[in-house]
């Protein structure tokens, strides 16, 4: 039975499940915020919801499969439970549109990442019956129509916040669906970004992570109409009173310009941790992937950035088993990993995605081979991560206190390199304290506060 949206006086409940990347996490927050004015409040349990939203990811087949299997479970839930409206948003929505309704008639509406500001209107349309699919690349800027976050919601998310400054991609790596799901690159204006950052800070946010699929390709309009680069934006954001830390992700090696590197040199509040994916360590594969740079370019870039800030740690992304990848190519990836030394990295088996050039390339690699390579690479990356965390033992570092720990007197904070730090302190959430790192575990540190 299809859910009915009742009269406005009723307080509706919305449940949203987010798949995929941080950009989707940010979108989910904006979606929920946009529904507050419509009388919805967010709930953590699906069983309580009048409106269920699945904010999907399309990057690899596994992510889409997970979504479809969740839809199967939701169909059963809706049959047993009275009713709720079910909507699909995000990247799979964009890529598959109408097809989702055919595969899963339980779905009431499908909206893409560029049109979710229309959700309140779509919910009203649904009252008349029928289904809605809206996956336009909207001409209007969705951010002009979305309410800024309110204090209560921002506080519920903690002192670290995401802020999307750029969406989409013009690079067209041959494995990637992003240019098709998120469209071409669009940058938000300086004014819009500063306004949102100021709002977040006024509500207690102390760390902002700027987000974009190609964040360092961001080039927004400044007040006098001229184009700003990400480096310039970071210098400007660093002037905002109350803000203590800045980060940005995800970057493409071709867009690391001099000013951005200077920002790492000159801004202590820009955290010394950079996600800079290369994907593979063989020039031949990089070319087939259309990455637009060589291994040597990447290594020289890393050297330049390290010269600007010697304690900067790198993280990356890797794909194993891209079509045509030989054992020799893979060995070159392992060699690159040794040359760079990553603090942390994500690695994936190549997943063929419909509509991307990679999917029609010959020489697709066997699954067994991909498994073998992934295991080998991950072993090496895990070992580097362990060594990296271990190398911080005995170091005095700044930690942003984020939440209360499990035991009495314990707080959990964030190190400059993202890994959490467990520390006994009376410091309040949102303050930055000095901590002596005493121990490293698989993913986090234990430390003691140093009162100078
Ligand atoms: N198969 C496997 N991994 C992929 N990624 C993007 N597209 C694919 C694909 N088709 C990985 C890349 C990217 C990260 C977000 O996901 O490593 O940097
Ligand atoms: Fe997944 Fe990419 Fe969409 Fe993020 S932008 S949700 S990684 S497909």
Q: Which overall shape is indicated by the principal axes computed on the Cα atoms?
A: globular
Strand order of the largest sheet: 2-1-3-4-5-6
Distance between the termini: 64 Å
Amount of helix: 25-40%
Number of beta-strand segments: 19
Mean pLDDT: 95
Q: What's the number of helices?
A: 15
Low-confidence stretches are 3-8
Rg calc = 23 Å
Provide the β-strand percentage band: 15-25%
* Class from helix and strand fractions: alpha/beta
> What characterizes the major β-sheet?
6 strands, parallel
Which ions, cofactors or small ligands are bound in this entry? 5'-deoxyadenosine, iron/sulfur cluster
Topology:
Elements: E1 12-18, H1 22-36, E2 40-42, E3 51-56, H2 61-80, E4 85-90, H3 91-96, H4 98-103, E5 109-111, H5 119-126, E6 132-134, H6 142-145, H7 151-157, E7 160-164, E8 166-167, H8 178-181, E9 186-187, H9 190-202, E10 207-211, H10 230-237, E11 245-249, H11 258-266, E12 273-275, H12 283-288, H13 295-308, E13 313-320, H14 327-340, E14 344-349, H15 367-391, E15 396-404, E16 410-414, E17 420-424, E18 432-440, E19 445-449
Parallel strand pairs: 1-2, 1-3, 3-4, 4-5, 5-6, 7-10, 10-11, 12-13, 13-14, 17-19
Antiparallel strand pairs: 8-9, 15-16, 15-18, 16-17, 18-19
Helix pairs in contact: 10-11, 11-13, 14-15
This protein binds 5'-deoxyadenosine and iron/sulfur cluster.
Explained architecture:
35% of the residues lie in helices and 21% in strands. It has 452 residues and is of the alpha/beta class. It is globular and about 60 Å long. The N and C termini lie far apart (64 Å). Bound molecules: 5'-deoxyadenosine and iron/sulfur cluster.
């Amino acid at each position: 039975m299809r859910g009915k949206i009742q009269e406005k006086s009723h307080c509706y409940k919305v449940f949203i499940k987010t798949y995929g990347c941080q950009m989707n996490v940010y979108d989910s927050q904006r979606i929920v915020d946009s529904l507050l004015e419509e009388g919805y409040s967010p709930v953590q349990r699906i069983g309580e919801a009048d409106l269920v939203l699945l904010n999907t990811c399309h990057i690899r087949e596994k992510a889409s499969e997970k979504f479809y299997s969740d839809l199967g479970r939701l169909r059963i839930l809706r049959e047993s439970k009275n009713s709720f409206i079910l909507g699909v948003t995000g990247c799979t929505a964009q890529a598959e549109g109408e097809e989702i309704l055919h595969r899963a008639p339980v779905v009431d509406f499908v909206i893409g990442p560029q049109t979710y500001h229309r959700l309140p209107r779509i919910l009203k349309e649904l009252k008349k019956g029928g289904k809605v699919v809206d996956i336009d690349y909207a001409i209007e800027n969705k951010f002009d129509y979305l309410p800024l976050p309110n204090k209560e919601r921002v506080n519920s998310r903690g002192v670290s916040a995401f802020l999307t400054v750029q969406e989409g991609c013009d690079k067209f790596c041959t494995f990637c669906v992003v240019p098709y799901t998120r469209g071409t690159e669009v940058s938000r204006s300086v004014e819009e970004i500063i306004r949102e950052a100021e709002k977040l800070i006024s509500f207690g946010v102390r760390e902002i992570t700027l987000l974009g699929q190609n964040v360092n390709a961001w080039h927004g309009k400044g007040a006098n109409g001229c184009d700003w680069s990400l480096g310039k934006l970071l210098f400007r954001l660093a002037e905002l009173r109350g803000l203590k830390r800045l980060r940005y992700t995800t970057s493409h090696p071709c867009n690391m310009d001099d000013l951005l590197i200077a920002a790492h040199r000159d801004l202590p509040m820009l955290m010394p941790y950079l996600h800079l994916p290369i994907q593979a360590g063989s020039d031949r594969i990089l070319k087939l992937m259309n990455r637009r740079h060589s291994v040597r370019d990447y290594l020289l870039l890393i050297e330049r950035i390290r010269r600007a800030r010697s304690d900067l740690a790198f993280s990356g992304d890797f794909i194993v088993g891209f079509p045509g990848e030989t054992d020799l190519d893979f060995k070159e990836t392992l060699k690159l990993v040794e040359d760079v030394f990553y603090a942390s990295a994500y690695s994936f088996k190549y997943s063929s995605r419909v509509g991307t050039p990679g999917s029609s390339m010959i020489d697709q690699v066997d699954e067994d081979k991909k498994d073998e390579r992934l295991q080998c690479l991950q072993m090496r990356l895990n070992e580097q991560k362990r060594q990296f965390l271990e190398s911080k033992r005995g170091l005095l570092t700044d930690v942003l206190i984020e939440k209360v720990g499990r035991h009495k007197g314990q707080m959990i904070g964030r190190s400059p390199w993202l890994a959490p730090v467990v520390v006994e302190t009376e410091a309040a959430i949102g303050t930055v304290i000095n901590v002596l790192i005493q121990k490293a575990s698989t993913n986090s540190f234990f430390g003691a506060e140093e009162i100078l």
